[in-house]
Structures are given as C-alpha cells and as structure tokens.
UniProtKB/TrEMBL annotation:
Signal peptide as annotated in the record: none
Limits of the Tyrosine specific protein phosphatases domain: 155-224
UniProt-recorded name of the protein: Uncharacterized protein
Domain of life of the native organism: Eukaryota
Family annotation (CDD domains): PTPc
Coiled coil: none
Domain Tyrosine-protein phosphatase: 1-233
GO terms, molecular function: protein tyrosine phosphatase activity
Length: 269
C-alpha cells in the first residue's frame, strides 16, 4: 500500500524515500492527522531487505510542521520489534536524523500510563530556520492486536493529548500505523462530537477512516474498545462515573513554555 503524500524535498536535502504514512481527514474534511507506520531502525534492516526509515520519519515531521506525536506501541512487545527508538536515548543527547536535521532530546516526564518527551529539531544547513519543539505522547499500556489494559487509562491519555497545546496535523503511529492508530483517531473525533453534544456515528467514523487508509481499526477487539471508551466518557458526562482527573497535566505545562531561538543551546532536565 503506497498511500504516501510526503515526497517533497527539504530545502537542500536529498530526495526523500518512500514512507508508509497517510493524511487522515476528520469528520469536517480537515487534514487533522497523519497516520504512520512506526519507524524502522538500522537494527531491523537485516540483509538489506529494507532500509531504515528513521531519517524519513523526522524529515516528514519537519516538512509537515508537526509539533505533536502520539505513539501507541512499545519498541518491543512479546520479544518482537514493533518500532525503532527513533529519538536519542538520554535527555540532553542529540542525533543527526538527516543530512540537514538535528534532533535533541530535551526532557521527559513520566506518569502512571504514559511518557511525555519533548524534542527540539534544528535544520543544520539553513541555520536561519528557527528550532522547533515537538512533544511526543507515548502510551504504555496497549499491546498489538488487543484491547488496552484499561479503558479509563486510554481515555485519560487521549484527554491529556487533547488538552495539550498543538497544531494540526497530529502524527499518530503504532507499529503498522493502522490498528491502534485508527482507534485513537476515531476516539479523538468522537470525543469532539460528545463535547459539542452532537450525535456519534462510530461505524461511520471508522468507515471513513478505512476509506483513507486500509485496515484502520484492525479487528473486532479494537472496534469494541471504541465503544467501551466512549461509553465511559458518556457516563462521566452524565455524572454516572467519576470525572477524569487531569491534574497531572499541571506539572507538564512547562513542557510547552520553553522559548527557542535559532541559537538556543541544548538543555536537559
């Protein structure tokens, strides 16, 4: 499947390779998301059968002005590689993701269900371009082809992402970029409907996703997860369940307050 819209060149960069990613519209027709396969690292490229996509992944982030990544997979699940660790290992470290792009791992915050990492990307060729901040939300409790461990934890995570400051499109990835990614995108749109007291058509939203990218919401378990999470959100709105507590966001607000300039020094917490 080659549903890829990211074939433009970075200024001064080499020609991009193919990357498995698709624009995804919301119910208004806006390109609100990019659903992508998790990057493949050098360690997974055995025998030259495929190339690493880590540099292409970061090039796409730069080209599309992405400032929010949602990661729904672990790098390794059940002894199987699902996604490369495409960021530096330790806060304060940097990687050269492309001929032109340097990625600095600025800081990390962890709560019970997720990691929040902040990266600073710089174009090292066109130094007049301002550095850019990218916040990655990484959910910890959801294995491939299954339901998340707790519907309430997933709902809390999605609300954290929705409450954070970001612009469209949001980059959403799991391992293949279809199953868990489709569930997240469907739930984000359905929560929009719920908050504005509009009717919710779960089948219609999933069907619309599948017309844009094959196998979005990959199996019956994942489809049921959408119903479980939305049912919980409705009960919370009606006062039948305790409302979600987002106070943990208070300690994360500083993530979006770091001021950047073209000559900002690398920092780490």
């Amino acid at each position: 499947m080659k549903m890829n819209d990211f074939m433009q060149n970075l200024r001064g960069g080499r020609k991009p390779d193919y990357i498995n990613a698709s624009y995804i519209e919301d119910y208004t027709g806006k390109h609100a998301y990019i659903a992508a396969q998790g990057p493949i690292g050098e360690d997974e490229c055995h025998g030259g059968r495929r190339d690493s996509t880590v540099s292409d992944f970061w090039r796409m982030i730069w080209q599309e002005n992405i400032d929010c990544i949602v990661m729904l997979t672990q790098c390794v699940e059940g002894m199987k590689s699902k996604c490369s660790r495409y960021w530096p290992e330790t806060p304060g470290e940097s990687i050269q993701a492309d001929d032109d792009l340097n990625v600095n791992f600025y800081c990390i915050v962890e709560d019970e269900h997720s990691f929040q990492r902040e990266f600073v990307i710089r174009n090292t060729t066109f130094t007049q371009d301002r550095p850019r901040k990218v916040l990655q939300w990484h959910f910890k409790q959801w294995n491939d082809s299954s339901c998340p461990e707790n519907a309430g934890h997933l709902l809390h995570f999605i609300r954290q992402v929705r409450t954070s400051t970001h612009s469209a499109p949001i980059l959403v990835h799991c391992s293949a970029g279809v199953g868990r990614s489709g569930v997240f995108i469907a739930l984000d749109q359905l929560l929009d409907k719920l908050e504005s007291d509009e009717s919710m058509d779960i089948f219609g939203i999933v069907n619309h996703l599948r017309h844009q990218r094959m196998n979005m919401v990959q199996n019956a378990e994942q489809y049921c997860t959408i119903y479980d999470v939305i049912a919980l959100a409705v009960k919370q709105k009606l006062g039948q369940e305790d409302k979600d507590d987002l106070t943990s966001l208070d300690r994360n607000r500083w993530l979006s307050t770091v001021s950047l300039s073209a000559n900002t020094d690398n920092k780490h917490i």
